[in-house]
Write a structure and sequence with these properties.
- Chain B: It is found in: Membrane.
- Chain B: Its main location: membrane.
- The complex is a heterodimer.
- Chain A is mainly alpha-helical.
- Chain A has 15 helices and 3 strands.
- Chain A has helices spanning 2-14, 19-41, 44-66, 90-108, 116-135, 140-157, 161-181, 183-193, 204-216, 241-274, 278-303, 320-337, 339-346, 350-370, 375-384; strands at residues 71-74, 77-83, 86-88.
- Chain A has a 3-stranded antiparallel β-sheet with strand order 1-2-3.
- In chain A, helix 4 (90-108) runs antiparallel to helix 5 and helix 11 (278-303) runs antiparallel to helix 12.
- Chain A is globular, with a radius of gyration of 20 Å.
- Chain B folds into 2 domains: 49-181 and 190-212, Penicillin-binding protein 2a (Domain 2); 216-546, 3-Layer(aba) Sandwich (Beta-lactamase).
- Chain B has 19 helices and 21 strands.
- Chain B has helices at residues 2-32, 34-45, 85-96, 100-107, 123-131, 154-157, 169-173, 175-179, 216-233, 275-278, 288-297, 333-339, 342-352, 355-364, 393-396, 407-418, 448-461, 528-531, 533-546, and strands spanning 46-51, 58-59, 65-77, 115-122, 137-146, 183-189, 195-202, 210-212, 237-243, 250-256, 306-309, 313-315, 318-320, 329-332, 422-423, 429-432, 435-436, 443-444, 479-489, 492-506, 513-520.
- In chain B, strand 2 (58-59) and strand 3 form a beta hairpin.
- The longest helix of chain B has 31 residues, at 2-32.
- The interface between A and B is large, with 45 and 37 residues.
Chain lengths: 385, 552
């Protein structure tokens, strides 16, 4: 509930530009609200059971993206699947599926997490496969989010720190290689170090973003008063939405937003601590880290603390698949939070199980054609109720 | 579970720390670097546009426009953005009246993002060009200077450069008053250059009108007469000035050859010079009036003082003769003026006391320095310093040779004789905006009576038997002096090149109009009485009627 209330306002903040996105949000948001609501009331076991189906489906979609004619290319990257206006990004679903998968695998035999060797098979093989597929799109940002989230999950599951350190080192080398091989990523990397020297080419986005934040000052220029959003800052409504928040609401707005993420972290990890059973704990912690990792990666890139990788800001950016996945994730997290409630539902006999199956199918279908329908609005509703 | 709880706490701490670092960095950008970044935002978001001020008009004494500014456009292009340069040039050239090949070569440039295709295109033409909807063209509003009367008073008015600055003539002298102050408009624009917000940061102050004492009709007449002189005598150049001798107000100032004020660059450089102030010439006999006035003022002679006049006067190594031997044996001062006797003038100067007092009187009449007329490019003439006088000098100066003056200096000095003895700087600007200009104060250099008796003597010149009897105007008394000066070429007086002039006023005893006609190197005849006096008569005759001066 806390997260719901917090994210609602920020979604509104982001919507400065045009009724098209707004309408999309409201429409998808309503849908997302229902999805979240249903999921939060499902039996947790059910989610666990269908994890493998979700994972399999998302892998299939990842491969489909690569099939000519099905994948949609934008800005040199093939990340989307879909026809005409209905598009969605399988990699966003993969994130959630992987978290659920890893949680399930580790919960089955918690001991495997205590040693790197035992973890390699079920966790790293599947995760690594997904990462490679996504890296091929290419989408470095999502790869990083997945890697970080996996790492956090392993830390929580009890992987020895030294082994984790080794793994991180290896991963870092891989990522660096990946970054250096592709010219546009190399440029992003170098421009990160001194964006103002590249203000007219590679550093353009960063510089424009920082100009927006700087001209907002402490309290901003007021809602809707951003000038930078009008074609100066590229991707102002998606990856760079934070800069517009900075310009319109100032430092106060940014710090407020970061605080909200802080609250999500607190509430999510509290939920994990209090959850019944290791599976629930790992699911809650995994989803929380997923959100935090993504948020931090986005914020750091925009503030010039990390190279640009192109991840949306959770709950705020208008990337639709990202939003609906996050909503579904929040539904799972809420489910864990109100754990007892879910268990009472699970006691219901056969008849209701088939109904639940139908509900799960609906969920899948919804995602497939709806993409990231508005998670944001759904939360707002929820907060109000 | 204990381990997991600890690990969860650890992860929470890491997340909090990372968020805190983010917040700190945001604070750095939003507070410490805010000024820098805001400036960077202003640089790219704001544009200051200059709004040109309309330049004031130049009007004649009756409010007729002589120079006006009309709305116009500069048309510029970003060559890179123009798709079909050949087609664009072909379409544009006839509309904006510019050379097609020039436009094409401008559009072919790849070394610049900005090139003018035409400057100061009249608004109507520019509008038609704009309607073509050619991409890559830019229309910058401005004003364009036009001279509705084309050829009239061009050298006097001057002209305005492509950037709108007065470069010559009155446009130059009164540039500050005419120009006004450009306004400034700040535009906040989006990244595509579309304006989001516009506000005027500096109001436009239009330029002030400059009203002249010039009378356009009189000017027209003077120019027409000079054109006839030009056709008849094929001189190098000619000047006519008409002035109110009492106030020093210039009523007409004509130069020949004429220049089309709208196309000053089509005339050779020397023709654009305002000869009335910008040329030096030896005044010749017109100068004798000052020799006589000085001797009279100092009481050395009276109009009736008689001097023996032979046919030749030896002066130093030179033989001095009159233009024709009058064979009179002796002449009074009046007769010396009337017949323009060189020998007589030299003898009067001798009676005045020679070089020293004569030099003083040259300066007293204002020669050797600028008159202070409100026109640019005024020359000061050349007056020999007293210590540089040679033995022959006093045989030259009294008859107006060996000294260089400007037409304007002659007008100012003659005005003193005409108005009763006051030397005053001539002026041509009456009002700037609605404020009358400060009129120059005069300085008395002659007694009324001296001026009156010089006028009386000059009246004789246009009378029966005088050197300019042809200048007499029916119904009026006229007075003046002819001049036929040899031009010094390379330090020697030529027998070939002369300056013929006539300076005079009417009515003779109560002058309302003073005029001078100066013809440089006429062909066919050389005498002021033949070349300049008839032109003078035509101009003054018209002017007397135009100014409604009653016949006597």
């Amino acid at each position: 509930m806390v997260y719901s209330a917090s994210s609602a306002r920020t979604v509104l903040q982001g919507q400065g530009d045009g009724t098209m996105y707004l309408a999309k949000y409201v429409g998808y948001g309503f849908f997302g609200l229902i999805a979240m609501h249903i999921i939060s009331r499902l039996r947790l076991d059910l989610i666990r059971r269908y994890t493998s189906v979700l994972l399999g489906a998302s892998f299939v979609m990842l491969v489909m993206v690569k099939v000519p004619g099905l994948g949609v290319e934008v800005n040199g990257a093939t990340r989307w699947l879909g026809f005409g206006p209905l598009q969605f990004q399988p990699s966003e679903i993969v994130k959630l599926a992987l978290v659920l998968h890893v949680a399930a695998v580790i919960a089955e035999r918690p001991k495997i997490a205590r040693n790197i060797r035992t973890v390699v098979g079920p966790v790293l093989a599947v995760g690594g496969g997904a990462v490679l597929l996504i890296a091929a799109q290419p989408d470095l940002g999502t790869c990083l989010v997945i890697c970080f989230t996996m790492a956090v999950l392993l830390v929580i599951a009890g992987l020895p720190m030294r082994q984790l350190g080794l793994m991180t080192g290896a991963g870092a080398v891989l990522v660096l290689l990946f970054a250096i091989l592709e010219p546009y990523r190399r440029e992003r990397l170098t421009s990160f170090l001194d964006p103002w020297a590249h203000a007219h080419d590679e550093g353009f986005q960063i510089v424009q973003g920082q100009i927006a934040i700087g001209s907002g000052g402490i309290f901003g220029n007021g809602l809707g008063q951003s000038i930078q959003k009008i074609f100066y800052v590229p991707e102002a409504h998606t990856d760079f939405i934070l800069t517009i928040i900075g310009e319109e609401l100032g430092l106060a707005g940014i710090v407020g937003l970061l605080s909200l993420y802080g609250i999500i972290a607190y509430a999510g990890l509290q939920t994990a601590k209090k959850a019944k059973g290791i599976y629930a704990t790992l699911v809650a912690a995994g989803i929380t880290s997923l959100i935090l990792c993504q948020a931090l990666l986005n914020v750091y890139a925009i503030l010039g603390l990390a190279p640009l990788t192109g991840v949306p800001l959770p709950f705020i950016s208008s990337g639709s698949t990202s939003l609906i996945t996050l909503m579904v994730s929040m539904g799972v997290l809420l489910n864990v939070a109100s754990g007892g409630h879910a268990h009472t539902l699970s006691a219901v006999p056969q008849r209701s199980k088939s109904a639940r199956d139908r509900a799960a199918e609906d969920r899948h279908r919804g995602r497939r054609d709806g993409g990231a329908r508005g998670a944001g609005d759904s939360r707002r509703r929820r907060a109000a109720s | 579970m204990h381990l997991i709880d600890r690990r969860i706490g650890f992860i929470f701490a890491v997340f909090l720390a990372l968020l805190a670092i983010g917040a700190t960095r945001a604070a750095w950008l939003g507070v410490v670097r805010a000024d820098d970044l805001e400036r960077a935002a202003a640089v790219q978001q704001e544009d200051d546009i200059t709004i040109p001020a309309q330049r004031g008009s130049i009007k004649d004494a009756n409010g007729i426009d002589l120079g006006v500014s009309e709305p116009a456009m500069d048309i510029a292009a970003t060559p890179r953005l123009v798709n079909d340069a050949t087609k664009v040039a072909a379409e544009l050239a006839p509309i904006i009246d510019r050379d097609e090949t020039k436009i094409l070569s401008s559009l072919a440039r790849r070394d610049t993002q900005f090139v003018y295709l035409g400057r100061g295109i009249p608004a109507t033409r520019a509008e038609r060009a704009r309607k073509l909807g050619i991409p890559g063209l830019e229309f910058i509003p401005r004003y364009r200077r036009e001279y509705p009367r084309d050829w009239m008073a061009s050298q006097l008015l001057g002209y305005v450069g492509t950037d709108g600055n007065g470069l010559r003539g009155l446009e130059y002298t009164f540039d500050k008053q005419l120009a006004g102050t450009d306004g400034e408009r700040r535009m906040v624009k989006d990244a595509m250059g579309e304006p989001l917000e516009i506000r005027d940061t500096k109001p436009v102050e239009p330029g002030k009108d400059v009203t002249l004492t010039l009378e356009a009709d009189l000017q027209d007449q003077a120019e027409e007469v000079l054109a006839e002189v030009g056709e008849k005598w094929k001189p190098k150049g000619a000047t006519a000035i008409v002035m109110d001798p009492h106030s020093g107000a210039i009523l007409a100032l004509a130069n020949w050859p004429r220049v089309n004020a709208n196309e000053p660059d089509k005339a050779p450089e020397e023709v654009n010079v305002n000869r009335a102030v910008g040329t030096n010439y030896e005044p010749g006999s017109t100068f004798k009036a000052f020799t006589v006035a000085a001797a009279l003022e100092e009481g050395k002679v009276t109009p009736d003082t008689s001097f023996p006049i032979g046919s030749v006067l030896m002066y130093a190594d030179r033989e001095l003769r009159d233009s024709e031997d009058h064979g009179m044996g002796s002449m009074t001062v009046s007769e010396i003026v009337k017949y323009s006797s060189n020998i007589g003038a030299v003898k009067i100067a001798r009676a005045l006391g020679g070089a020293k007092p004569f030099d003083r009187w040259i300066h007293r009449f204002g020669f050797g320095k600028r008159t202070g007329v409100d026109l640019p490019g005024e020359e000061r003439g050349q007056v020999l310093a007293l210590e540089d006088y040679s033995g022959a000098t006093m045989g030259n100066l009294p008859i107006g040779q060996g000294i260089n003056v400007t037409p304007m200096q002659m007008m100012a000095a003659y005005a003193a004789i005409a108005n009763g003895g006051i030397l005053r700087a001539p002026h041509i600007v009456d009002k700037v905006g609605t404020t009358p200009t400060k009129k120059p104060a005069g300085k008395r250099i002659l007694r009324e009576s001296t001026a009156a008796s010089v006028r009386k003597m000059l009246e004789g010149v246009t009378g029966e038997g005088g050197t300019a009897s042809g200048a007499h105007i029916e119904g009026y008394t006229t007075a003046g002096k002819t001049g036929t000066a040899e031009k010094a070429i390379n330090g020697k007086y030529s027998e070939e090149f002369y300056v013929a002039s006539f300076v005079g006023f009417a009515p003779a005893n109560n002058p309302k109009l003073l005029a001078a006609v100066i013809v440089d190197e006429p062909e066919g005849d050389i005498y002021g009485g033949q070349v300049a006096a008839p032109a003078w008569k035509q101009i003054v005759n018209f002017a007397l009627g135009y100014k409604k001066i009653r016949p006597e």
